[in-house]
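User: Hi! I'm working on a homework problem where we have to compare a predicted structure to a textbook description. Could you give me the structure for the chain below?
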Amino acid sequence: MQAKNGCPCIIRSFLRPSDAFIMELTQLLGLILHIDKALGMLLEQYGALVYVLLFAIVFAETGLVVFPFLPGDTLLFVAGAFCANGLMNAPLLMLLLIVAAVTGNTVNYFIGRALGQRVFTHDYRWIDRHALEKTHAFFELHGGKTIVLARWLPVIRTFAPFVAGVSEMGLTRFQIFNVVGALLWVIGLVMAGYFFGNIPIIRDHLNTIVLIGIAAAAGPVALAAIIRFVRKRMRGAQAEH
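Assistant: Happy to help. Predicted structure tokens:
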């Protein structure tokens, strides 16, 4: 006999409460991380409540530095494909996710501003030090444009507003980049999913396409960083001589 969530009842009966809770939490986390694949099932079971879940995921990914692993790009693309099938309302979806992206970034900005430069001298276990330093270097290279560019770069997308707050970027200037980036990101990916998400070759190779898109977005940035690093080394070598 199987339980509804797929766990054999006889096994569940021998689990301690803490083990059962961990199992449920693991299943929930797996569902969130693969929500792009489970979206159809969730729509059938929960209907309009899925809008709330998508809002929460986008807000958490952009607003809390402990959740850089949450899905973003693929989620928006797949949701756009469901809009094309008439299962979701595209204008409502885009409005909610734009609000989630803007407010998430704003919360992240104020968290960074509250912590300030201490993030570079203190060891906060809940902050990914490598991601923080990588995003800081990106911010130093591109300035305010980072808030817009980072929307298409996983992990950096989560840390960019945090670093902007740490760097004490002006709130008005930050919000301009924040709103522009959210509009381009949400509308661009949802509409891309709307028009192209149901094409078989795209639907079947979505993960590969996303990886190619990330590489295309990150490639010029990485190249610029390498050129800048080489120039610094060359200037340093010339100064020594």
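For your comparison, note the following. Residues 152 and 217 are 7 Å apart (CA to CA). Confidence is low (pLDDT under 50) at residues 1-15. Good luck with the assignment!
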